[in-house]
């Protein structure tokens, strides 16, 4: 199945732009290395890579949580270090003013939220669904997602992805979605960005990334394409380690120093710009 193109009624402007973005945690070698990506309005980009590739850090940079070189990151034409909407778990869903009642009802039903259950009695997954609902109550222009569907069942996940697709097709919303779950995404994705050790190795529109284009056109599952990328990465890393060991070299200092992850994206799975 071929992914539908974003609505042509929306202007073809860049919503998210990265220009040679690099970032180093204090005391560490550069962790994000000269990443460049251009996402037009209305695109749905999958951010892909092995654990530790830099997906969450890159999302945090796009969300304005880490300072990088001036003008290397642009979201909606401006710096992401301002005008950031952060989710407040302390507000109840019906306490948010200026919300379309139909949109609110759809989100509550789609995320299977019990409006009568007290927050203090909810599981972490239930609380996260409330946070997701609140974050989506008002329309956004750019949405950054980090494994947002981890607490949803298969049906709930597909319905939420359909909601995001409708948002981008009808309103021109731009979505960057980091995930390890690829079922059903062949007809959803418009752009991909594959990360390896802090670099974007494959990025752009699906049609411009040969392997991803084959998946979207029905040639193979997107999951299998990603597995091939990850397998090739692992084999190359293993070969480099073996060559270094044969030459009498131990692990590099860069590999020995691991950056400390902040709690932002792991505990709050989305950030948005309006």
Automatic annotation (TrEMBL):
It comes from the Eukaryota. Residues 16-222 form the ABC transporter domain. Keywords: ATP-binding, Nucleotide-binding. SMART domains: AAA. Pfam families: ABC_tran. SUPFAM superfamilies: P-loop containing nucleoside triphosphate hydrolases (SSF52540). InterPro entries: AAA+_ATPase, ABC_transporter-like_ATP-bd, P-loop_NTPase. Gene3D superfamilies: P-loop containing nucleotide triphosphate hydrolases. GO terms for molecular function: ATP binding; ATP hydrolysis activity. This is ABC transporter domain-containing protein. The lineage of its organism: Eukaryota, Viridiplantae, Chlorophyta, core chlorophytes, Chlorophyceae.
């Amino acid at each position: 199945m071929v992914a539908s193109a974003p609505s042509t009624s929306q202007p073809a402007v860049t919503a998210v732009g990265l220009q040679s973005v690099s970032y180093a945690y204090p005391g560490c070698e550069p962790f994000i290395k000269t990443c460049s990506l251009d996402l037009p309005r209305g695109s749905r980009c999958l951010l892909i890579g092995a654990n530790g590739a830099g997906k969450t850090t890159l999302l945090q940079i796009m969300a304005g949580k880490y300072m990088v070189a001036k003008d290397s990151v642009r979201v909606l034409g401006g710096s992401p270090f301002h005008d950031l909407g952060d989710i407040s778990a302390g507000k109840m869903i019906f306490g948010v003013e200026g919300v379309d009642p139909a949109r609110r009802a759809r989100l509550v039903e789609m995320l299977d939220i019990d409006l009568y259950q007290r927050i203090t009695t909810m599981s972490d997954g239930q609380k996260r669904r409330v946070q997701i609902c609140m974050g989506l109550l008002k329309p956004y222009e750019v949405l950054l997602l980090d494994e947002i569907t981890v607490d949803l069942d298969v049906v709930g996940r597909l319905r939420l992805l359909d909601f995001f697709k409708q948002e981008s097709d009808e309103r021109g919303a731009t979505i960057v979605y980091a995930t390890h779950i690829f079922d059903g995404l062949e007809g959803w994705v418009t752009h991909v960005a594959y990360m390896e050790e802090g670099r974007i190795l494959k990025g752009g529109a699906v049609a411009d990334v040969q392997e991803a284009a084959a998946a979207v056109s029905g040639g193979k599952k997107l999951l299998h394409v990603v597995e091939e990328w990850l397998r090739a990465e692992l084999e190359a890393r293993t070969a480099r380690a073996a060559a270094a060991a044969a030459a009498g070299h131990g692990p590099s200092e860069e590999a020995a120093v691991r950056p400390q992850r902040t709690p932002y994206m792991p505990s709050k799975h989305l950030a948005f710009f309006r």
